[in-house]
Amino acid sequence: MSEKPRLIYFNGRGRMESVRWLLAAARVEFEEIFLDTREQYVKLIKDGSLMFQQVPLVEIDGMKMVQTRAILSYIAGKYNLYGKDLKERAFIDMYVEGITDLMHMILMFPFSPPEAKEKNLALITERATHRYFPVFEKALKQHGQDFLVGNQVSWADIQLMEVILAVEEKTPAVLLAFPQLQAFKTRMSNMPAIKKFLQPGSPRKPPPDDHYVSTVLKVLAEE
Amino acid sequence: MAGKPKLHYTNGRGKMESIRWLLAAAGVEFEEEFIETKEDLEKLRNDGSLLFQQVPMVEIDGMKMVQTRAILSYIAAKHNLYGKDLKERAWIDMYVEGTTDLMGMIMYLPFQPAEAKEKNLALIIERATARYFPAYEKVLKDHGHDYLVGNKLSWADIHLLEAILMAEECKPDILSAFPLLQAFKGRISNIPTIKKFLQPGSQRKPPADEKFIAHVKKIFNM
């Protein structure tokens, strides 16, 4: 009998949040273990649980999976969110990689030095509005369908939804020039599994605060 | 009729090198168009050829593919180098992500400030010998097979060989504590397509020298 996937990470978004989104959208219940102390992390390493001594770690289908992209690809493949053939997968991969680059800037933002924060925030907004969002706006406009690839919901749509909300938290009016993305966001928000994930009490984590940053630095001993 | 894949990048390793390795290992002939000037890059951008205005870009099977990982995944799957099922693909992905992280550190070394170079080189050697190589040595030891996944050559093996050779360029005896990886290196290097790629005259690119780094910085406004 298959058990629920188990996520091991800090009690915050970071690199695990995309995994939470994807599992939730696929309607897969999961458990979480939160890393609060360095001792927990050292124990995971000593136990041989972390292939490259890094988290995220997801215990799923008898595997101790590490490396966010590998984890996400596996979940997408397993739950039919990866297109119907190799070419659709190629487009999903391209879109996801672009979104991941934008997401990475947001992920690293809380860890940037105070004097760099204003510049980094401006760069996030600039990249979102000039490099990434125009691509997805155009894709949706060109085929006129509800989803990015193959007229069916995929990993790319879920990842795009996640990054739209993340950028909006920093720049609320960021979708002003993107009517297709506004409609996309509304549609995605209304999908039952995502609607549920967006409600209070779900496994979705809040934006990172100082406590989150200090916990990460303490556990990874990177102070 | 599908033509040969066409690679758009600078005339050096960078992020395109793993793609050259994989195509070569799969026995796929490919063409290359080199970006020599800022204007070459601007032209690609203005033509709308670069989805996120970035290279690598590979024209393949009617697509203008960007994003290194997407390109590599497509080539691996197309040429039967991605395992036989979802679980084998998961292991290949995990291993490739590790070698990508290691090679990324080595790739960025020449672009770090001069005063940080010594420290970063030491970190690369530490990571290679204490984090990455032990993981792959253990995989080979645990199953005793010739290849990392599924007892069959995959993208993960080709990527690991590339990473080993790059790491050896940083420190020639870096594999001294890893007997299985030494044997692995010998085996994979002898696969005919890979052996050919490792010979002079192939499309394999040399390590970047200072002149090339300056040239790249100019093109990309770095």
From TrEMBL, chain A:
<feature type="domain" description="GST C-terminal">
    <location>
        <begin position="85"/>
        <end position="209"/>
    </location>
</feature>
<feature type="domain" description="GST N-terminal">
    <location>
        <begin position="3"/>
        <end position="83"/>
    </location>
</feature>
<protein>
    <recommendedName>
        <fullName>glutathione transferase</fullName>
        <ecNumber>2.5.1.18</ecNumber>
    </recommendedName>
</protein>
<dbReference type="InterPro" id="IPR004046">
    <property type="entry name" value="GST_C"/>
</dbReference>
<dbReference type="InterPro" id="IPR036282">
    <property type="entry name" value="Glutathione-S-Trfase_C_sf"/>
</dbReference>
<dbReference type="Pfam" id="PF02798">
    <property type="entry name" value="GST_N"/>
</dbReference>
<dbReference type="InterPro" id="IPR036249">
    <property type="entry name" value="Thioredoxin-like_sf"/>
</dbReference>
<comment type="similarity">
    <text>Belongs to the GST superfamily. Alpha family.</text>
</comment>
<dbReference type="InterPro" id="IPR050213">
    <property type="entry name" value="GST_superfamily"/>
</dbReference>
<keyword id="KW-0808">Transferase</keyword>
<dbReference type="InterPro" id="IPR003080">
    <property type="entry name" value="GST_alpha"/>
</dbReference>
<dbReference type="Pfam" id="PF14497">
    <property type="entry name" value="GST_C_3"/>
</dbReference>
<dbReference type="InterPro" id="IPR040079">
    <property type="entry name" value="Glutathione_S-Trfase"/>
</dbReference>
<dbReference type="InterPro" id="IPR010987">
    <property type="entry name" value="Glutathione-S-Trfase_C-like"/>
</dbReference>
<dbReference type="InterPro" id="IPR004045">
    <property type="entry name" value="Glutathione_S-Trfase_N"/>
</dbReference>
TrEMBL record, chain B:
<protein>
    <recommendedName>
        <fullName>Glutathione S-transferase</fullName>
        <ecNumber>2.5.1.18</ecNumber>
    </recommendedName>
</protein>
<dbReference type="InterPro" id="IPR004045">
    <property type="entry name" value="Glutathione_S-Trfase_N"/>
</dbReference>
<dbReference type="InterPro" id="IPR010987">
    <property type="entry name" value="Glutathione-S-Trfase_C-like"/>
</dbReference>
<feature type="domain" description="GST N-terminal">
    <location>
        <begin position="3"/>
        <end position="83"/>
    </location>
</feature>
<keyword id="KW-0808">Transferase</keyword>
<dbReference type="InterPro" id="IPR050213">
    <property type="entry name" value="GST_superfamily"/>
</dbReference>
<dbReference type="InterPro" id="IPR004046">
    <property type="entry name" value="GST_C"/>
</dbReference>
<dbReference type="InterPro" id="IPR036249">
    <property type="entry name" value="Thioredoxin-like_sf"/>
</dbReference>
<dbReference type="GO" id="GO:0004364">
    <property type="term" value="F:glutathione transferase activity"/>
</dbReference>
<dbReference type="InterPro" id="IPR040079">
    <property type="entry name" value="Glutathione_S-Trfase"/>
</dbReference>
<dbReference type="InterPro" id="IPR003080">
    <property type="entry name" value="GST_alpha"/>
</dbReference>
<dbReference type="Pfam" id="PF00043">
    <property type="entry name" value="GST_C"/>
</dbReference>
<dbReference type="Pfam" id="PF02798">
    <property type="entry name" value="GST_N"/>
</dbReference>
<comment type="similarity">
    <text>Belongs to the GST superfamily. Alpha family.</text>
</comment>
<dbReference type="GO" id="GO:0006749">
    <property type="term" value="P:glutathione metabolic process"/>
</dbReference>
<dbReference type="InterPro" id="IPR036282">
    <property type="entry name" value="Glutathione-S-Trfase_C_sf"/>
</dbReference>
<feature type="domain" description="GST C-terminal">
    <location>
        <begin position="85"/>
        <end position="208"/>
    </location>
</feature>
<dbReference type="GO" id="GO:0006805">
    <property type="term" value="P:xenobiotic metabolic process"/>
</dbReference>
